[in-house]
Write a structure and sequence with these properties.
- The structure is a single chain.
- By secondary structure, this protein is an alpha/beta fold.
- The protein has a single domain, classed as P-loop containing nucleotide triphosphate hydrolases (Rossmann fold), CATH 3.40.50.
- It contains nine helices and twelve strands.
- The strands form three sheets. Strands 6-7-8-3-9-10 form a six-stranded mixed β-sheet, sandwiched between helices. Strands 2-1-4-5 form a four-stranded antiparallel β-sheet, covered by helices on one side. A two-stranded antiparallel ribbon has the order 11-12.
- Strand 9 and strand 10 form a beta hairpin.
- The longest helix has 15 residues.
- The protein is globular.
- The protein binds adenosine-5'-triphosphate.
- The site of adenosine-5'-triphosphate (ATP) has 11 residues, from strand 2 and helix 1.
């Protein structure tokens, strides 16, 4: 049984649509997971569930030993840091970047009249520094580039010192330089044994930072493969999940994938 996250026979249905179909998945201490799959596979639904923001239609979700539905989610949420596009839309654009991060210690977006201790503001500043955006602490959040915002969101997600860090497509929309800088920061985090368990959603194997240990491959709400990253990210598994024949390569600690065979499709990405 996963000691950090456990999904057992989890299904999510909306009307006649089955979004997740009897998903089993275990995550243990120290693991760094990537969740991969084509559009509509159910990746965000899984992330929303392990963030305690969505309940399964059937099956059980256990988050750090507490079963969803039997625990106050407000107690659970500080234990799970989430960075996602949906959160970005809720953050006040005029808010000072330092406050965007520090308000996470209260689980709120938007500073009101709370008093923060210097311990909190020092931690927020240190996290911004780790992600290379410390110099932007006094700027309004809405003036940041999308790459800078992604890094602020991750600093915010780490602020309450969570047991689990969930990243829903952190590299989406970044240019090559922005993506590589983010990957370097995430690789450093992945290699830090004091860092929380990490679960990151992506469409592209090229966006998996070095140091990630496990992969969950989804297709149409079903687990195609799950386990150690080298066992899961095989050409066979990825081809099945994405519905086209793919070649997968590993150069040192990075993956790449493209349509099998030369010609018109060579170089295509996997989403
Ligand atoms: N409330 C809902 N009612 C009906 N269908 C829904 C609902 N919410 C999600 N879905 C569907 O469930 C499927 C899985 O959605 P989800 O966002 O989890 O996929 P995803 O793998 O994250 O996709 P993407 O890569 O496109 O972000 C999609 O087909 C989506 O349209």
């Amino acid at each position: 049984m996963g000691d950090v996250l456990e999904l057992a026979g989890v299904s999510v249905r909306r009307g006649t649509k089955t979004i997740l179909d009897r998903v089993d998945w275990s995550v243990n201490e120290g693991e760094r997971w990537v969740v991969l799959g084509p559009n509509g596979a159910g990746k965000t639904t899984v992330i929303q569930m392990v963030a305690g923001r969505l309940h399964p239609t059937s099956g059980t979700v256990t988050i750090i030993g507490e079963q969803l539905g039997k625990v106050d989610v407000n107690e659970l949420r500080p234990l799970v840091g989430l960075a996602s596009a949906a959160l970005d839309q809720r953050l006040p654009m005029g808010e000072r970047v330092l406050d965007v991060v520090v308000t996470a210690s209260y689980g709120i977006t938007g500073r009101w009249r709370e008093q923060y201790e210097s311990l909190d503001t020092d931690r927020a500043q240190a996290l911004l520094d780790v992600f290379g955006v410390g110099h932007l602490a006094e700027r309004a959040y809405g003036t940041l580039s999308s790459g800078e915002r992604k890094r602020v969101q991750i600093a915010r997600a780490l602020m309450p010192d969570p047991e689990v860090l969930l990243l829903d497509e952190p590299a989406a929309g970044l240019d090559l330089g922005g993506r590589e800088e983010l990957m370097a920061a995430l690789a450093e985090l992945a290699g830090d044994n004091r860092a929380p368990v990490i679960v990151m959603v992506t469409h592209h194997v090229e966006e998996i930072p070095p140091g990630f240990t496990h992969a969950l491959l989804l297709r149409e709400g079903v687990v195609e493969a799950a386990g150690p990253i080298d066992d899961v990210l095989t050409p066979q598994n990825l081809s099945r999940a994405f519905g086209l024949e793919l070649e997968v390569e590993r150069h040192r600690d990075r993956f790449s994938a493209r349509a099998a065979g030369a010609g018109a499709r060579a170089g295509a990405h996997v989403s």
